[in-house]
Amino acid sequence: MLTRVLEPEVMDTPEEARAYDEMDFSAVNAAFVADLVAALTPADLQLPRDTTTPEFTSALPTSLPPTILDVGTGTARIPLEFCLQVEWGHILAVDLSPAMLEIAQENVLASSYRDRITLRQTTTTPLVAEGARFQIVMSNSLVHHVADAAQLLRDLALLVAPGGVLFVRDLLRPETSAAIEELVNTHAGQDTPRQQQLFRQSLAASLSLKEVEAIARELPIETTVTKNSDRHWTLVGKAR
Fold first, then answer.
1. Domain range summary for the chain, segments of one domain joined by +
2. What is the tens place of the pLDDT at every residue in 87-116?
3. Rounded to whole angstroms, how far apart are CA atoms 172 and 114?
């Protein structure tokens, strides 16, 4: 098994953020949202009145409190895909990278969903400290960017309101360098050399399925972990 090789936690340059946004993740993003919605039950869609603190809600630029949190939103492609597939829900989309959020703002303003998506530069730590809670907490392809994946997943679990759902998907680390190259050729063969290198680094920085399962067993919510493609794992959690 390959040893995990970490990436930088944040894509700091506009060039990196633009290269990421120009990669075609449309099918992956559509599948993420479709699988998230399929994992919900009618009861999951009932928002408790106290899911967010008054202080947290009043700080947002809308009178409608967010019921959905997207952590590591990048250029906001997942929130936009969610709004495309689902007619309900206000999403708070957060990321640490100013370069990513600048493009995210462009993407949101160019869409018809600007009233349903709020962008904020932050990490999970301040949100947990604020006591923010959401009916749905989702995150796609963030875990492999973070050194302490266990702490990130614990924070995500703490942000789920009672009765709410956690939905996390990320890349799987292959067992060999040859397997990484096979995935790069299969899924990024038509991309630029720079985009291929980003994908290669992401695979090397990812967790193995056993590592995800070990973390999931320690989370304060009930979870299931599955391998759902040749390169992805998914964690679904339910807060009681």
1. 26-171+207-238
2. 889 999 999 999 999 999 999 999 999 999
3. 33
Residue 145 and residue 193: Cα distance in Å, rounded? Answer: 20
Q: Under a CB-based contact definition with an 8 Å cutoff, are residues 134 and 8 in contact?
A: no
Burial class (CB in 10 A: 0-12, 13-18, 19+), 147: exposed
The structure's pTM equals 0.87
What mean pLDDT do residues 51-59 have? 40
Q: Please check whether the domain covering 26-171+207-238 is classified as CATH 3.90.1150.10.
A: no
Segment 209-228 mean pLDDT: 97
CA-CA distance, 215 to 136, in Å (whole number)? Answer: 20
How far apart, in whole angstroms, are the C-alpha atoms of residue 81 and residue 99?
A: 20
Residue type, 95: D
Q: What are phi and psi of 160, to 5 degrees?
A: -85, 130
Among 174, 90, 199, smallest CA distance to 135 is for 90
Contact present, 85 and 33 (Cβ < 8 Å):
yes
Mean pLDDT, residues 214-233 taken together: 96
CB atoms within 10 A of CB 122: 13
